[in-house]
Amino acid sequence: MNTNDIREHLLSRAPWVNRATTVDTVKTGDPMREVQTVAVGWVACVENLRHAHELGCDLFVTHEPTFWEHSAPELRYRNVEPGLTKQRFLDRTEMVVLRVHDIWDNWPGIGIRDSWARGLGLTHFLAEDETRWHAVYAIEEMTLCEFARQVAARVQVLGQDSVQVIGDPEMIVSRPALGVGCGGPDTDMVALGADVLLVCFDGASYWQARQRFAELGVGVIAVEHGTSEMWGIENLAVYLRATFPSISVHYMDLHARPWTVMA
What we know:
The protein is of the alpha/beta class and 263 residues long. The chain has helices spanning 3-12, 46-54, 83-93, 102-105, 112-119, 144-155, 187-191, 206-215, 225-243; strands at residues 26-28, 37-41, 59-62, 96-99, 125-128, 135-137, 142-143, 164-166, 172-173, 176-178, 196-200, 219-223, 248-252.
């Protein structure tokens, strides 16, 4: 078993991925090297990589970029700090890094979107867009403030201590919509009846997205990018563990978390 075997298995079951343009490639290391122990994490931050090495991992599977650029070959920050330190570490340990992003965003049932919904307790599916990135769900009627409190309580276990909300706290909502990380819901979901959009800061800038949504009269709840995707990446680790029983798989979540200060 090597990294190419794992990548090919995943790609063969992801017909929505364009093999010619996908970012799901090997970022560093020898993809033919035998793999016995694998780490899986939302991002290949140096803390995760070091812990993976301590556990004897041959391969790190990351969802987000290793060197802070979405598209290959990720050269802009690789040759300056902290990229230099990270690359030296990877060279020294010979750890392979494989990105699994396009594959896992749309993976049915346990991929990013569906794991995010299930983690929030959204189980009454109503509709989705053509890309299957966005979906709207039904919940019992409650105020925006009540729903935001429920979301905040759910994501606390992921290390997020608060959520940000835009909209009248007393407005009644019953049709939340969410999406895949930066590709969060937009007016497509409002057209399908969504009255509150769950977005991430990375993908929904204030003036371009969240303010626009507010002017449509819908509520907006914003979380961190990692928060919206960690449950999905944990499910990726579960999937690899079940699919390849001959290898050991460890889930890593040591990436930095913001914390909130209130006056």
